[in-house]
Here is the input.
Amino acid sequence: MEPDEKTPKRRPWLLRGLLVMCALFCWFLFQLFGPNPTIIVSEETTVITSPLRADGLPDYQRHWRDVGREGVTHENNGAVLFWQAIWPGELRPQDWRPMSEALGFERIPNSAEALQDPYHKLVRELIGFWLTEQYQAGLSNEESDALLNPANQAIIVETTADEIVGHAMSRPWTSEQVPPLADWVARNENALDLLREATKRPKWWSPSPSLVGDEYEGAIAILLPGVQSLRGGARALSLRAMWHAGEGRREEAWNDLKACFQFARFCAQGFTLIEQLVAIAIDGIALNRTVVLLQTGEPDAAFARQVLNDLNALKLPCDIVMSFDKGERAFFADTVVMLSQDADSLEDLGVGGGFNLLNYIRIDWNPVLRTGNHWYDRLVEAARKPTCEQRTAAFDQFEDDLTTVAESVTSPGRLAASVFSAGARSSVVADVMMSLMLPALNAAMKAEERAQTWLDLTRVAAA
Here is the structure.
């Protein structure tokens, strides 16, 4: 039977073409919106491999908490006495109980006998009243009334009183010269002695409330109230040290300054770059006052030799490379893991816009983590160069390369490729993360070099 000439001919190539286009479209949707590949837990990706959370990912909160308190007890921990002396310091009320329990307090410490900041409003007002009395002695009634005007009193408190406190922290003074500050020393004697006693304990663990509380928002949001409190404690001790120096008690002044040096080294036990930089600042406070103390009163070779021996026993107050390698590297990994689970978390912390889009796009986070490790490897390698010139050259090259990578993120070619390739997309995300999170490494290393130089020069001054 002859086929009907009116029956249309089949076109199998059209059907195959439609199937191929459909498959390509499905592949495109899958590679763009499909589920993320599982994060591989390894030193090359997540940096730490234990402890793990219930979902199998690293528990960075517990890791830092456990590492910090290794070998620490309530009896050998200097932070216990420190927090007793300054409680509650910069802690938020919701952090009081978890911090008390972490430090081994049977109950929340009493703040009634805590150290009062020398810049506290009450202290400044007392200095202002004392200054007013001094000024009034040679004034007419009309001038005296003008001086007592609230606006003028506010100026005295905000400017002159602050200047007096600042001067008293950096140069010798006596009770007769500044009676209100002598009264401050007397009121805070117990707390200041407790601070000094804290530095005699062999261990230091002052955890961030973020590591001991119930809510953990990642390393990027970690709270460090103890760091600022350490700096405040060093300022308070330096104030009393300069009072001792002015009153002729060199040994007592030096004991207070030695406590400041130890505060710096306690602070540097933290993994964050902020803690390292604050440690350098605290050491600077102590070094500056040491030079002043050496020049106070009659020359005393025996005392200068004691100071020199103590200074020679001091190590550098910071370890920037350790912070890069053990701290900042793991903080980056923690942030990436957190981002992979909930990109809105960075939005909530105010890091920047656009991250919430990652909740809807397929990203392989393993290349992001490996890229971060690669950059931190380069960073640590540059920081460990043996000479200043070699470190500077390595840092300059590092920053040039990082700048080039950051600028390439917005190129039309990379953005277009990231739409069609999960690998290209992961590469873009990795470069964006590195440009946002890598620390100011050159400035940090120069700060460490200045700290070493300042310590060496102070040793020369004592010699």
